[in-house]
Amino acid sequence: MIIDIIGWVGTVLVLVAYFLITSEKLGPKSRAYNLMNLFGALFIGLNVYVNHAWPALGLQTVWGGVAIISLFKNLRLQNRR
To answer: From CA 78, how far away is CA 1, in angstroms rounded?
Structure first.
């Protein structure tokens, strides 16, 4: 039961992040956007791991990795300014 709630929270985070970027309320380099994607991927990934949905786990691993890379890249750019 709790794992399903965690999965749904992750889904909502990813969808809200997508909505905010497509409506131009956030930019692709914003910390909020990347954190929503990262935690969304982690929460969905935890759910699919527990449920043995391996293809979906692969997707969430890559999705989270992209968010982490983007966060560090943007932090480096901010520190240079």
So the answer is: 41
